[in-house]
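Lab notebook, page 48
Experiment: co-folding of the full assembly
Goal: obtain a model of how the components sit together before planning crosslinking
Operator: M.T.
Materials (sequences as entered):
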Amino acid sequence: MAGSGSAAAPQIALGIDVGGTFTDVIALDLAAGRIVASFKLPTTPDDPSIAAVTGTERYLERTGMGAGAVYHGSTIGTNTLIQKRGARTALIATEGFRDILALRRQARPRLYDLEPRISPPLVPRERRLEAHERMTHDGGALTPLEPAEIERIVDGLRADGIEAVAVCLLHAYANDGHEQALGEAIRAALPGVFVSISSDVTSEFREYERTSTVVVNAYIGPTVRDYLLRLGGELTTRGIPRLAVVKSNGGLSSAANAERYPVHLIESGPAAGVIATAALGAAEGLGELIAFDMGGTTAKVGVIQQGQPRLSTEFHADRFVDGRDVGGYPIKSPVIDLIEIGSGGGSIAWLDPFGVLKVGPESAGADPGPACYGRGGTRPTVTDAHVALGHIGADGFGSEDLEIQVDLARGVLAEAIARPLGWTVERAAWGVLTLANANMAEVVRLATLRRGLDPRDFALVAFGGAGPLHATEIAREVGVPRLVIPPYPGLFSAIGTMLGDVRHDLVQTLLRRTGDLDGASLEEGFARLEARAQALFAEEEAAGAPILERHADLRFEGQMFEKTLPVARNRAGDADLDGIFRAAYRADYGYDLPEQPVEVVNLRLVARRPVRQGGWPAAAEAERAAGPGRRRRTILAADGSGREVEVLPRWAIGEGEELMGPLIIEDFGATIRVLDGQRLGALQSGTLVIEDGE
Amino acid sequence: MTTEDTTRLELASDPVTFEVVRGGLYAICEEMKSVMTRAAFSPLLSLSSDLSCALLDHDGDVVAQGNDIPVHLGAMPFSAKGILQRFPLDSWRPGDAVLSNDPYSGGSHLPDMTIISPIFDDAGVLGFAASRVHWPDIGGSAPGSSAVTDEIVKEGLRIPPVRVIRDGELDPGVSTLLFANVRVADDRMGDFRAQIACNQRGVDRVGGLIDRYGGGAVRRILAETQDYSQRMVERALAELPDGSYRASQHLDGDGYIEDPGNGPLVLSVRIDKSGAAIRCDFAGTGRQTRGPINAPISVTASACYYLALALSGGDVPPNSGAYRPVEVAAPEGSLVNCVYPAPVVSGNTEMSNRLIDLMFEALAPAMGRQAIGGSYGTAGVFAVGGHDPIRDRPFIHVETLGGGMGASRAGPGLDGHRTHMGNTMNLPIEASEAASPVLIERYELVDGSGGGGRWPGGRGVRRVLRSLADEVKFSLLFERALHPAHGALGGEPGRVASFRLERTDGGGERLSSKTEAGSLNRGDRLLMETAGGGGWGETDAEDA
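Observation: model returned without errors.
Model output:
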């Protein structure tokens, strides 16, 4: 098997994206810049590597070619956390502070709840040990950590079948000496135990968030390590030597670096779609973009400005359980800033006790899935509503493992919604879609208006299995003037896994006034981060030195929030930071506070190295030719009236051609609805553009 | 059962449009809040989110509100109605805004500044965008405007409803007067602008709904949204057995006096539950007192509204409709319906939380297995300030502390969190120590402080501070050092709070839960332990 195409192997990369419902595999010929094959398989939740390996085998068998690398968007970290299947973990904290993990920020996620549920600490109290030691905020050792104390703690860890240890001591960002000493002693005494120390994972102040981050890193560490080893091994035996993983920041990481910092992979899956959006935008010159990714279980919205995805430095993992906010686990890690809701094709429609129609947050998920899949789903979903109205045809998902059954969809809609309300099935289906669209339009507003951005300045890029079905109505609802449907919308995230840079983000808290910081100590701070970046890049396989970008988090003294601003590399004197911040503050708020000192909170370094050059990959010839030809289908309206609408395969639309809605475009893995009054055109890459008006 | 017929919400609106617009109204409130937090300067606003946003109908009733501070939101209709009394509907023009913070005109306490802005359709005022923001200072005798004093005039600037913006223009007379009477006026001006921008966003977004669906349809949905929440609360209340339920509790003190259980700081309630309605009657409650723990009627009503929402399972979209099944009767001039010139600044934090415990103790026989234990009963405000010799500048550190929540049938009470009427965050220790000459020696749960039972009450919090400077002033505003949180269904009471001072020379003293103007010298330690929550069920009982 592995031998058949070994000559071509290094030129072909596989992108594998594991979603909640489907695992997508796409093969890209790097030299030719062309997609050569793609596959869609049901996700295997118990061990996601099974679907990934099955998809790889399918590629190898069907094409007879090999591959040089797999780029992987993985949900293993987040699944381990959500399912609470992580390691038996211990935490070492400063004496007097072991309960920081349970005290959190002391606010409840839900207000009027007499039986509140809050994400339980991943380390129970009996495994939270205290070290007799204390650092001060300026790095002084107020209480030194004695060798006998280190020994006592190591002994305490032996007792208990511990698989992972997190170490987080107060002010370790200012002086990591005690953490390092503990880390070394534990590693030496307990080989095989996954040891994670806070100053290594994120050297940033704010003890609760840092503790939470390092605890998640340790908790998911052994599982992620084993998964990557297993998958890497399976790929190696099939002749594929390299495995790289998409990180939450949208960059790529070698498996070796990913194993050490699994917490940076938590948002790996969703990140790839935003990377693909940014890459498509750059290739086609699309300007400012909103990425709208809707799959079977969730919808996610991110923003791309000046070609870069908007990042956030903190997020809360596992925040919603059964649709309820339980607080989640804060993670300090640069992450593509995505708003996510539990609204997807699988979202269940239901009536509350007062007869009011609701959609979600409960989802039929991958199993049993929507009723129309014929796998035992008994409650109506958003997908069933589309099927009932004729939006999706019998082969609408492009997965050979799935067949759509219209009768089942109509049956559950009638049973659960139409009959109790005295409505027709069509009215019920229309109501379900209207509510689902309203929920998702609100998410787009959340990602733009609530961050001070005007959606009218953006184009919306819709992808994921269900994105293109909903995007035309959502764009109208929110007032986004231009809608973009990429080629392979159902596999867009899988393409994105191959388009990122190798990237590592590093941070160091400083907490110093700009006036107290000379150029030399600033340079020294960045130099330390650069040394760490070089060490990480030594574990990466791509050739060449990384590009280094310096940033600083700055604020007026006394403020609680910082602005992250780029720092010019050659002029990093103290006057610069002060000036950079004041200029940016004036630009944002219209005034300066000349008397107020400026504080440098954190130094940040972004180290990146591009992997792939060139424009958007061309579509496979086979895809262009595949699929049924033009035909007509009856679409039902809310009042039950039918209307014949033309159904086109995507590749029937040539570059420069313009068509008017209503139309249905069928593509591999997705269905696109073009509404009345919308104009459709195609770009060179096969990207479709939809705008209102003639 | 024909429950389907009795609970069905009869809508004049198209049901799908109703649900879309209703969801939009709540989202607008969250969007208003984001406008404020992005622009506000005060750490208090941007970090601990001590602010709330709402949309009101033309009667001043709340239609939708953000996921904000319960004590703010229950009080919102009182402020709005107070404002409408002074400014009737025909006096409003587009671009106006009215400001008020007067506890004797529907407000809660002086730092909470409410602004409402009118929304118009073709028929006139359709409703209002409203916001309530806790200002870090509103004048008065001490920085932070939360000192122990004996009359409201000493608590800060009292603002009855005044038209602060007319036709889009800030009234220079009002703003000059306002900013001459608060500390750090520049920051407050920034916060004030942010609050006005927040209201404007609400006005614009509802205007968009009016353009799209028409004023008549939106007005109908404003009313039906309240009906919907009302039905949800009524449905939950109907499941409780009818009857008359009583309880009585004492507060620790008012800053001037302590009440060990036989004093004047008594709270009494009788809750009459009949059908789908409850009436909370506070007859028998003590007279308003000299110190600032008195509650204006808006604060007392907020607590009763919280009770109704919590009894309904926590998922009812809060608005005035949800409050309709609740009637509040509070004797005028008492601790729970004080009259001028009683000081009120801590009624918001102390009285409001204790009223919740009081009412849940009373309702325990009606709630059966759903009864919950009492909670730590305070916002736990402590302030430390003075001159920082290390950085050579003045400093002030104000923070709230969590405590134990009562246990429930679902499990142990929440450990060390804010409970019931408040929801402010703690501050990072690493940030605090970098900004003030105070070392935090311990921040941990107090072992064994939750009341015993089948499920133990939530644990209280221990916070130990050591001063690194001389002549550092501190104040404490806590509760339950004398009166523990009650247990439910045979569960035991939680452990009481305790506050101590330890001097470097080995001397020490017990402190009252309300301590004003204490002093620390270098090396002195301040030990605070908040109360644990009450337990649930008897210890040996099986979970049936």
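Interpretation: Chain B has two domains: 3-229, 371-544.
Next step: discuss with group before ordering constructs.
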